[in-house]
Amino acid sequence: METLEEVELCFPQLLNTSCKRPKRSHFEIIMSYTILSSITVLTTTLNLLVIISISHFKQLHTPTNLFLLSLAVSDFFVGLLMFFQIMLIDGCWYLGDLLCVLYLYLAYIITSTSVGNMVLICADRYVAICHPLHYSTKVTQKRVQVCVSLCWICSVIFQSLVLKNNLEQPGSSISCTGECVAVSNNIAELADLILSFIGPVIVIIVLYMRVFVVAVSQARAMRSHIVAVTLQGSVKVNVKKSEIKAARTLAVVVFVFLICLCPYYIVVLTAPDALLNSSSSFVICLFYFNSCLNPLIYAFFYPWFRKCLKLIVTLEILRPDSCVAYIL
């Protein structure tokens, strides 16, 4: 039987109600702090650069970039919320029940909004590639603003319903002092699983597969047309390269999204009460790491982002006429 000397408590003065601090090696704690801090800084920095770029340069005020801006904003706040996750490395929460509920509430809203933004980006690319002639009429600046606003509003309303009991009675779901968890009923958990994970995954895969099929078919049609008229050898090489590039890009997008989100929801389904041990801490960090990768996938590979980055780093963005600079 464990004695008090063998057990390290989050609040030693509360012998009967304090949570036990998980036993972890000094190396594991240092590595966790280092990795989480690096992800936090990288996530906030990259997404802030995307926000500044799209907001400042007028040439980037397009419907597609509005989706990217909304995604960058949600991912930026995910990076800020990771500071609280760093505090949970040793398995103890020291900021009280009210701040715990507020942290979890904001985390749920922002992460679900980030996933929703990814779905909107997929839909935007689907219309642009599969229905290019109707894109300018279907995807307008006003409609994009409405979709982005609805994405945020729906996330707030939905997560308010999921965490209703926790918001009304902060601390009612914890089993000991120093714990920070959110507990909801089975219906709410199932709805959150479907709307925040299963649904978006299905939509993203279906849309991207459709985009890939259309892109490949268009490339092959163009190849057949050009081959019948002009040089055959060089065209084949170029088309094959474009097909491979399209397949690689779509595969990376889907794979990264799934690889970052699947482990978290697997833990939620199999062991929902084990959110503060070392294994769950890893999957939570991986879940947040997707927000660090989003600007790299959706923005960093765009040439305009590299141009904006250069203007920001060299402080040329401070010039009065920099907002009308040629970026594209």
Beta-strand percentage? Answer: under 5%
What number is the mean pLDDT? 78
Q: In sequence order, what are the helices and strands, one letter per element?
A: HHHHHHHHHH
Largest sheet: none
User: What is the CATH topology classification name?
Assistant: Rhopdopsin 7-helix transmembrane proteins
Count of all domains? 1
**What is the global morphology?**
globular
Proper CATH architecture: Up-down Bundle
Low-confidence stretches: 1-6, 234-240
Structural class: mainly alpha
Q: Quick one: how many beta strands?
A: 0
Distance between the termini: 68 Å
The CATH homologous superfamily corresponds to: Rhodopsin 7-helix transmembrane proteins
Report the CATH C-level class.
Mainly Alpha
Query: Helical proportion?
Result: over 70%
In DSSP terms, counting alpha (H) and pi (I) runs of 4 or more, how many helices?
A: 10
Topology:
Elements lengths: L25 H31 L6 H25 L8 H35 L4 H4 L2 H22 L1 H5 L17 H42 L5 H38 L7 H23 L2 H11 L15
Describe the protein in words:
The protein starts with 25 loop residues before the first helix and ends in a 15-residue tail after the last helix. The model is unreliable at 1-6 and 234-240 (pLDDT under 50). 72% of the residues lie in helices and 0% in strands. Helix 1 (26-56) runs antiparallel to helix 2 (63-87) and helix 2 packs parallel to helix 5. The protein is built from 10 helices and no strands. It has helices at 26-56, 63-87, 96-130, 135-138, 141-162, 164-168, 186-227, 233-270, 278-300, 303-313. It is mainly alpha-helical and 328 residues long. The protein has one domain (26-324): Rhodopsin 7-helix transmembrane proteins (Rhopdopsin 7-helix transmembrane proteins, Up-down Bundle).
